[in-house]
Design goal:
Helix content is 52%, strand content 10%. It has 21 helices and 9 strands. It has helices at 10-30, 33-39, 60-69, 71-82, 111-114, 169-180, 200-214, 225-237, 241-249, 266-281, 302-308, 321-335, 341-350, 355-371, 378-388, 398-409, 413-417, 423-439, 444-449, 456-472, 474-491; strands spanning 44-49, 52-57, 87-93, 105-109, 190-193, 220-224, 253-257, 285-290, 312-315. It has a 5-stranded parallel beta sheet, sandwiched between helices. It has a 4-stranded mixed beta sheet with strand order 1-2-3-4. Helix 6 packs parallel to helix 7, helix 12 (321-335) crosses helix 13 and helix 18 (423-439) packs across helix 20. It is elongated and about 110 Å long. The protein starts with 9 loop residues before the first helix and ends with a helix. It binds adenosine-5'-diphosphate and magnesium ion.
Length: 492
C-alpha cells in the first residue's frame, strides 16, 4: 500500500508526538520561555516516517519565521533525538481555508536544513531572509516556489501619469524624494492628506512602484487601513498577533492608505504604534494617507499623532481648472481618445469635485459617443454632463463672474469691491462689469450696485473702455478672450 496512507496513522502520530515532546524538552532549555510559547507550543508533530518527522505549523508565515530563526536549533535537536539521518518536513495549514474542521494543508520539506552537511552537529545553511523580499504576506496563499512579499501595488499608478499641478506639487515632489531615498529623508513618516478622489492613493502607490523600480531589493507593501484592521482582527482571533506584528516589522517601505479609518479602532492603533516604532527606529520608510488633516483626527491617540508630526504632512488640494484639464488630456491619451479642446475645457470646468468624477465623465462621454456612433462634440458633452453633474446648467450670476475674474487676476474678492483707483483693481472692475453686462440679464443699475454702489453711467463707461482697449491692445484682448471663454463655459 501507498506509504502516504500511513502518514496519519495513529502509530505514526503517537511516535511523532513522543519524539517531538523530547525535542521540546531540549528546545525549552535553549530559548526563553516567551519565545518557546510563541513559536514552539503551537507546533504539532503529525507524522514520523522512518527518520522524517513532520511538523504541522499554523501558517506560512510561521513556517518562514521558524526557518529563519530556529532552523539550526530545530535541526540540531532532531538529530540529537532521532540520529544523524533525521529529516524535518513541515505541514503548513493554509490560511485561506476558513474551515477549521477540514483544514487544507501543504507539505514542505525543510529544504535548507535537509541539505547534507559535513558536520552532523552543525547545520550549515544560508540565511534565507537575507533578502527581505523573500517572504510572503500572512494573508496570501502560500506558494511553494519563490517566496516573495506581494507588494499589493497597482502598476498603473505611476509618477509618469500623475499630473502635477498647484494642487499637489509639494506632496508629489516629497513623494519622489522619498521614493529615491526611502527611510533616509526627513520625510518619515510621509503623511499625505486631502479630500476624496484628489489623488492620494495614486500618489502613494506611485511612490511604491518607484521604490520597486529604483530599489528592487526593498520590501514594499501597500495596504489599506481597512485591510490592515481586518487582518489584525483575524490574527487576534487566532491568537497570532505576534505573527502579524513580526510580519509588518519586516517591511522596508510600508504604505498605509486611509489611516483616518483607524479612528474608532483603538486596538488597531496600539498594534500600529508598535509597528510604527519598530520601523521608524530601523530606518524604514512609512507612508500614510488620510482624508482629514492629521491634527484634526479626533480619536487618534496622541502618541500616534505626535509621531505623524515627526515627518512631513503634505496636503493635496482639490484639483484646479488647469490641472483638471491636464488630467483629462493624460487620461484621453492613455485611452487613445480624441476629444476637441472645447469639450475638454467644458468637462474640466463643470466637473470640479474630484478626479474620479472627472474620469467618470470622460467614460460616460466616450460611452455615449460609441453607443450613438456620434462624434464627441460640445453638444453631446452638454447632454451627458447634464445627467452627470448638477452644476452643469447653472445660472450665471454677477457674483459668479466677480469670482471668476478675481481668480483669473489673483485678486482677493474684497479688493474687487473696494472703492479704489488702483489700476489693477479698476481694470478688473471694468472687465467684470463688461462680462456681467454681456452674460447676465442684469440691468446696468443692478450691476453697478454689485460693486458697492456705482451708478449706471459708470457701468456704461466701463464697458466702453473695455471695448476700446480690446481694439488697441492685443495682449489685453487675449486676456479678455481667455477670461470670456471661461465665463462662457460656465454659462452653458
Ligand atoms: P484618493 O485616494 O485621494 O481618494 P485616488 O488616488 O484614488 O484619490 O484618485 C482617484 C482617481 O483619480 C484615480 O483614478 C487617479 O488615478 C486619478 N487621479 C487623481 N489625481 C490625479 C493626478 N494628479 N493625475 C492623474 N490622475 C489622477
Ligand atoms: Mg484613496
Amino acid at each position: 500500500m501507498d506509504n502516504h496512507l500511513y502518514h496519519n496513522s495513529n502509530n505514526s502520530v503517537n511516535e511523532a508526538e513522543a519524539v517531538w515532546s523530547k525535542c521540546l524538552g531540549v528546545i525549552k532549555d535553549n530559548i526563553n520561555y516567551r519565545t518557546f510559547q510563541t513559536w514552539f507550543e503551537p507546533i504539532r508533530a503529525v507524522a514520523l516516517n522512518g527518520s522524517v518527522l513532520t511538523l504541522q505549523v499554523p501558517s506560512q508565515f510561521f513556517y518562514e519565521w521558524l526557518e529563519e530563526h530556529y532552523v539550526e536549533l530545530l535541526g540540531k535537536t532532531i538529530k540529537r533525538i532521532l540520529g544523524r539521518e533525521a529529516k524535518l518536513e513541515y505541514r503548513i495549514l493554509m490560511e485561506s481555508s476558513a474551515s477549521q474542521r477540514n483544514p487544507a494543508s501543504i507539505n514542505m520539506p525543510a529544504s535548507n536544513y535537509n541539505k547534507p552537511s559535513k558536520d552532523s552537529n552543525y547545520v550549515d545553511m544560508p540565511l534565507k531572509w537575507d533578502d527581505p523580499t523573500n517572504i510572503k504576506t500572512p494573508y496570501a496563499i502560500p506558494g511553494l516556489k519563490r517566496m516573495q512579499i506581494d507588494p499589493q501595488l497597482n502598476a498603473n499608478y505611476t509618477f509618469d501619469n500623475y499630473v502635477e499641478g498647484d494642487c499637489n506639487r509639494v506632496a508629489r515632489s516629497a513623494g519622489l524624494h522619498v521614493a529615491q531615498k526611502p527611510g533616509a529623508t526627513s520625510f518619515n513618516p510621509l503623511v499625505v492628506f486631502g479630500g476624496v478622489g484628489w489623488g492620494k492613493t495614486h500618489l502613494v502607490q506611485a511612490i511604491g512602484n518607484e521604490v520597486r523600480r529604483l530599489h528592487p531589493n526593498k520590501a514594499v507593501l501597500y495596504v489599506s487601513a481597512e485591510k490592515f484592521i481586518n487582518q489584525f482582527i483575524d490574527h487576534s482571533k487566532n491568537n497570532e498577533i505576534n505573527d502579524f506584528i513580526h510580519f509588518y516589522q519586516l517591511i522596508d517601505v510600508l504604505i498605509l492608505d486611509d489611516i483616518h479609518l483607524f479612528v474608532p479602532a483603538t486596538k488597531t492603533q496600539d498594534v500600529f504604534f508598535a509597528i510604527f516604532n519598530h520601523l521608524h527606529q530601523s530606518g524604514k520608510q512609512i507612508i500614510l494617507t488620510s482624508d482629514t488633516p492629521p491634527k484634526d483626527l479626533e480619536g487618534m491617540q496622541e502618541r500616534l499623532l505626535s509621531r505623524f508630526r515627526w515627518g512631513l504632512n503634505a496636503d493635496i488640494q482639490a484639483p484646479d481648472f488647469e490641472t483638471r484639464q491636464h488630467i483629462l488630456q493624460v487620461k484621453m491619451k492613455q485611452e487613445g481618445l480624441e476629444i476637441p479642446e472645447e469639450v475638454v475645457k467644458y468637462v474640466a470646468y463643470n466637473v470640479q469635485t474630484n478626479v474620479r468624477e472627472l474620469e467618470g465623465a470622460l467614460i460616460a462621454l466616450f460611452a455615449q459617443a460609441t453607443l450613438n456612433r456620434k462624434e464627441i462634440d460640445l453638444d453631446l458633452a452638454k447632454r451627458v454632463m447634464k445627467n452627470f453633474v448638477k452644476t452643469a446648467a447653472r445660472e450665471l450670476t454677477i457674483e459668479n463672474i466677480q469670482k471668476m475674474v478675481c481668480e483669473y487676476f489673483h485678486l482677493p474678492y474684497d479688493r474687487l469691491l473696494a472703492k479704489t483707483r488702483k489700476r489693477e483693481v479698476v481694470q478688473a472692475r471694468q472687465i467684470t462689469m463688461y462680462l456681467a453686462k454681456k452674460f447676465t440679464k442684469s440691468s446696468l443699475k443692478n450691476i453697478g450696485e454689485h460693486f458697492g454702489g456705482f451708478d449706471h453711467t459708470t457701468v456704461i463707461h466701463s464697458c466702453q473702455t473695455v471695448e476700446n482697449l480690446m481694439d488697441t491692445d492685443t495682449e489685453y484682448k487675449e486676456h479678455l478672450l481667455e477670461l470670456q471663454q471661461k465665463v462662457q463655459l460656465a454659462s452653458i
